[in-house]
UniProtKB/TrEMBL annotation:
ANK repeats, residue ranges: 141-163, 209-245, 247-279
Annotated GP-PDE domain residues: 496-824
Source organism: Rhypophila decipiens
Disordered, as annotated region: 581-612
GO biological-process terms attached to the record: glycerophospholipid catabolic process
Record bears the keyword Repeat: yes
Molecular function GO labels: glycerophosphocholine phosphodiesterase activity
The protein, known as: Glycerophosphodiester phosphodiesterase
Keyword Hydrolase: yes
UniProt-listed Pfam families: Ank, Ank_2, C2_GDE1, GDPD, SPX
Length: 828
């Protein structure tokens, strides 16, 4: 949440300078300047108290506007106090005094708001009759008539006022015009902005936060505003590359945080300093990469920097934030996220004519509203003030119920009145989470997880609106409840752990080196011989609920785009066996080949014409499938790779030597994959999918070193809540382009770290491009108590791997296992 940058400006732009400077306070705490933070907070509360008193005594005060203004300040103050408490400051006298003072101020404001008439200041053209001097004279609230005309959106009136001012404007006049230009930019009134720029507003003017007009233009995301302001700044010879007071952010850093490539290119052409560092040591490139804007970060020039310090050197070692959530025996856990988790489908969580979960101008005129969420059979209730100011993606509603209770969620819309203080339920809706459990057949569910239910008015029972949420029900797993120690965090002087990707490497079309069929026992054995400590492989579930190792969504070897979860184990193995010598499946784990009556070993099919014909037939059978058309090949197929038989998870655990560690990726189908393949977005039910894998581990893993991982956030949550034996890793592209997976929690390094810490995961495995581009971010990941791993094509470059090793990466997932193992051996 970025107080002072985005959220509050949706509500009261003209009061921007009066808000608590949340970003400054947060920076002071991160830098361990706690005494300065208390002084700043004390001063801020005093200033805010004076402003609130002046507004309450003003006859034109809008209580609703003032209420939202105070709501955001309240959230900022309480979050700062909570951060100070986490630094062990709860017993500090200043802490207690400020807490009591703030509570008193809030109570007094609520009482006084109830007695203020709901009047709204209206600016008319009568203001033009004022003298020229009066145009720039502030009233009781500090607003001049020019301020009020800009706030009211009266472009013609603003133009008349500017024309009536002297041609040679003094410093005070230019400063007032510079100040109201900030307000006009936040309100995005094109005509007024043009008039103020035409009238030579002072573009050197900096707000109390140290922001220039260019800061504001960048924050609202308008390329045209940024271009006009920048052009005017250059004409006035005003500096355009100045840092603000809170975080020492220049306009370039704000643009990188929002990923606005057009504005970034504009600022680069204007000569913005790309090497500038903010108060915490962040560069613009690191801010862009951290937030998942890798295409934007690539626009910025690389520069030499140490691998430590700045964002990679956090003041405190933050531990994973877990609310002690665990799915115990005879329990179900309901997890519901308001709205959607899809980046490309923005959906309002709550949508009613008079209120919404997202801010909408013109609503909330009939009172303040809360959304209360509860689960049948759970004592807890969760409330969220509307509109929702906090990011809910990693702050879902969580309820525990008995496994004998049908999972249901109740959404109540509550109206809060001040005179007298009371709460009234005005609308409600109930979601039956188990209602469609058999809609797609036994143990099946849709990959579209959002649900939308109607909200009914309490009095009339007519539909008043809707609520959209993304639910997940976690059921318990009775085994694997004892932790099995595994140390993956590297020692300061040791090399990272090397993991063979899909065994000895992913099969690719380059044919640059000998490739063993991926996800096969032969490939696993080869990877270990080449120097891998762990082997990574993908596990999917067949239609008859068998765990098999396979990467791709579709079994193209069958000649169709049928997904793995729609074929039986017998059909899956048959697609592999048809490529082998008749009746003589290859054995990569020591079993000998059959011999003829004379005791002779049969000739290898790879040396005969029949083999070539067979390979051509297989390719011809697959040529019309979506996957084959995109890649031009299929992994582990005759004629392209050293082929081995497909395997089940049980076979791998039983036959693979016990000293070989396994990185088991739970390859649950994702929505964008089914859309791309043109198949129905339906898969095995999540709990069943995970339980089948865990059951195999319980029966056959013994004391083998195992880590579990997945690209699917819900799979990671289930693994974390169902079992305690094995560490869980979240795998993410972290904004790597082109982005195909629109999952919000996987869209950036920032989102992935927050998600992993929220659910107590062991670590995150990133697409390595982000950390190769900005290696200091490795320290930020590890500073949050997480193990940091990477995967991707650059991990086959020894130089890139050494760079990551020096930055502190713990796990390297690579295809060229032997090549990388030799380089890592030199670092030991």
């Amino acid at each position: 949440m970025r107080f002072g940058h985005t959220l509050h400006r949706l509500f009261v732009p003209e009061w921007n300078e009066q808000y608590i400077d949340y970003n400054l306070l947060k920076c002071l705490i991160k830098l361990s300047k706690l005494s300065e933070a208390y002084q700043c907070l004390d001063s801020s509360i005093s200033s805010l108290e004076g402003f609130l008193r002046a507004r309450l005594n003003s006859p034109d005060t809008d209580p609703k506007k003032l209420q939202w203004f105070q709501e955001i300040n309240a959230r900022a103050v309480w979050r700062i106090l909570a951060k100070l408490e986490r630094h062990g400051q709860s017993e500090d006298p200043s802490h207690g005094r400020l807490r009591v003072r703030w509570q008193t101020l809030q109570s007094a404001l609520e009482t006084q708001l109830a007695s203020v008439a709901d009047n709204k200041q209206i600016v008319t053209e009568d203001v033009i009759r004022s003298s020229n001097d009066a145009i720039l004279v502030g009233g009781q609230d500090g607003f001049t008539p020019l301020h009020l005309a800009v706030i009211g959106g009266h472009a013609q009136l603003v133009s008349h006022m500017i024309d009536s001012l002297p041609a040679n404007k003094d410093t005070h006049t230019r400063n007032v015009m510079g100040e109201v230009l900030h307000v006009a930019l936040r309100y995005q009134n094109d005509d007024i902005i043009r008039n103020l720029l035409r009238g030579c507003a002072d573009l050197s003017y900096r707000s109390s936060r140290g922001e220039t007009a260019l800061h504001v233009a960048v924050q609202v995301g308008r390329v045209d505003y940024a271009a006009h302001v920048l052009e005017a700044m250059l004409k006035q010879r005003a500096s355009h590359d100045v840092p603000d007071n809170s975080r020492a952010w220049t306009p370039l850093l704000f643009a990188c945080a929002d990923g606005n490539s057009e504005i970034i290119q504009l600022l680069i052409r204007a000569g913005s300093n790309q090497k500038h560092r903010d108060r915490l040591g962040w560069t613009a490139k690191e801010v862009a990469a951290f937030r998942g804007h890798l295409a934007v970060a690539d626009l910025l020039e690389p520069f030499e920097a140490s691998l430590t310090g700045g964002p990679a050197d956090p003041v405190e070692n933050q531990k994973a934030r877990v609310d002690n959530i665990y799915c115990g025996a005879d329990q179900n856990v309901i997890i519901a996220t308001l709205g959607t988790t899809a980046k490309d489908r923005p959906i309002a969580g709550l949508d009613l004519p008079y209120c919404s979960s997202g801010y909408t101008r013109g609503k909330y005129e009939t009172g303040s509203f809360l959304l209360e969420v509860s689960a049948m059979g759970a004592p807890e209730r969760r409330r969220v003030p509307l509109p929702v100011l906090d990011d809910q993606i990693n702050n879902p509603f969580v309820f525990k119920i008995t496994d004998s209770t049908d999972p249901r969620l109740v959404f109540d819309v509550i109206q809060v009145t001040c005179t007298p203080r009371k709460e009234v339920v005005v609308a409600s809706g109930t979601a039956l989470l188990a209602g469609n459990s058999h809609q797609f057949g036994a143990f099946r569910q849709s990959l579209v997880r959002e649900q939308t239910i109607p909200i009914l008015e309490k009095e009339t029972m007519r539909m008043a609106g809707s609520v959209t949420f993304t639910p997940l029900v976690v059921r318990p797993f009775s085994h694997l409840q004892i932790p099995r120690p595994i140390d993956l965090a590297r020692s300061p002087s040791g090399p990272p752990v090397l993991i063979g990707h899909r065994g000895a490497g992913q099969n690719t079309a380059t044919r640059e080196h000998l490739q063993v069929g991926e996800n096969t026992v032969g490939s696993f054995l080869s990877a270990v011989k080449l120097g891998a400590s762990f082997v990574e492989f993908d596990i999917q579930i067949t239609r008859d609920l068998q765990a098999v190792t396979f990467h791709d969504l579709s079994l193209s070897e069958s000649g169709t785009d049928v997904p793995i979860h729609d074929v039986t184990l017998e059909q899956f193995l048959h697609a592999s066996n048809t490529q082998l010598p008749h009746g003589n499946p290859l054995s990569m784990i020591g079993a000998g080949h059959s011999r003829d009556e004379a005791g002779r070993r049969p000739r290898s099919r790879s040396l005969g014409r029949e083999f070539e014909a067979g390979a051509a037939q297989i390719r011809d059978r697959m040529k019309h499938t979506v996957d084959f058309k995109e890649k031009g090949f299929k992994p582990d197929t005759r004629g392209d790779f050293i082929q081995d038989t497909f395997a089940t998870l049980q076979e791998i655990l039983v036959t693979l030597p016990k000293d070989i560690g396994c990185d088991i990726e739970i390859k649950y189908p994702r929505l964008h994959e089914t859309v791309g393949a043109g198949v129905a977005p339906i898969a095995i039910e999540l709990n069943k999918f995970v339980d089948l894998v865990l059951e195999q581990l319980h029966q056959h893993a013994d004391n083998r070193q195992i880590i579990l991982s997945s690209f699917t956030p819900e799979i990671c949550i289930l693994l974390a809540l169902k079992q305690k034996a094995y560490p869980v890793f979240f795998i993410t592209n972290a904004g790597k382009v082109p982005m195909t997976d629109m999952e919000v929690r996987a869209a950036s390094l920032q989102g992935a770290v927050h998600f992993a810490r929220r659910w107590g995961l062991a670590g995150v495995v990133f697409a390595c491009e982000t950390l190769v581009m900005c290696p200091r971010l490795v320290g930020l990941v590890k500073g949050g108590g997480l193990v940091c791993g990477t995967y991707g094509a650059p991990n086959n470059d020894p130089g890139m791997v050494e760079l990551q090793a020096r930055a502190g990466v713990d796990l390297i997932v690579a295809d060229r296992v032997g090549l990388i193992a030799r380089r890592l051996a030199k670092l030991a």
